[in-house]
Amino acid sequence: MSTFVIVNPRSRSGDAGRRLPELERLLRRHVPAHTIALTEREGDGERLAGEALRAGATRVVVAGGDGTMSEVVSGVFRAQAQARVELASLPLGSGGDFGRMLGLGRDLAQAVARLETGRRRAMDVGKLSCVGLGGEPRERWFLNITSFGMSGEAMLWLHEQGRRGKRGPLSYVESGLRGVMSYRARPVRVTVDGQLVHRDALLLGAVANGSYFGAGMHVAPDARPDDGVFDVVLAGAMSKAQALWLFPKLLKGRHLGDPRVQVTRGRLVELASEHAIWLEADGEPVGRLPARLELLPLALTFGGLP
What number does CATH give the domain 126-297? Predict the structure, then answer.
């Protein structure tokens, strides 16, 4: 198997770059036939994945965060190569939400060794069409979660902190609390498989293939990445005090019993609003509504699993 490793050296506040010599030693030991490439800017994950596939790679390994993986997935689908490539992840990202759900852990040596010995599993993939950050039509694929409303604006702030080199371990919690205190719920129309399920003010929405987002918030506890449906989690308008009360429940996945939270399942989700409602996908800001999200069942193979 020809293995191409894409490393985001800025992941986890630069820890991925600092551990690059360790990663190279482990790869030489466990995966001798490999090539390493480093991302330098946004979009490089998608570009490098395309180059790897054109060069004949049959496995693409991502050493970085969920955002880098999402770029790579988009590169695979844009190249229409999803049927002939296997993806894998190494735990060098900040949030690591998709890996958290799959039980990948944080041990880099174990993760590299599992590239050859680990299980393989077919995964569902989400396809997102929306208005990009600059107002252009945008299309992106995602493995984990696309969310909107409060979380979309929180990720815009977090992204800017990363640009300034100020994104640290507690940044996700800070961004969430900032969102709770400053975001004003606005009306959003949510249609799932052709049925209107929500049209009132919305604080937060998550279209979930995976179960965690925001570095460990258990937003969709029942979501599974191979069950053929999204879990659509919607939190309606509430006061700041109510939102602050709900926030710790969201961290632990205990918010689904709240009367202001509803969950719907389906394969096609359409979102619209007369207001500027921002979206994030796999931890990166991607654009705003209107948006269309389609689930592609068992469309990609993921390897190196425990």
Answer: 2.60.200.40
Tens of pLDDT, residue by residue over 204-261, are 999 999 999 887 889 999 999 999 999 999 999 888 888 888 888 888 899 998 999 9
Asked if residue 187 has a cis previous peptide bond (ω within 30° of 0), the answer is no
38-67 residue pLDDT tens: 999 989 999 999 999 999 999 999 999 898
pTM for the whole structure: 0.91
Domain 3-117: give its CATH code: 3.40.50.10330
Planar angle of CA 303, 304, 306, nearest 5 degrees: 115
Between 54-63, 109-118, 158-167, the lowest mean confidence (pLDDT) is in 158-167
Strand partners for 300:
123
CATH 3.40.50.10330 residue ranges of the chain are 3-117
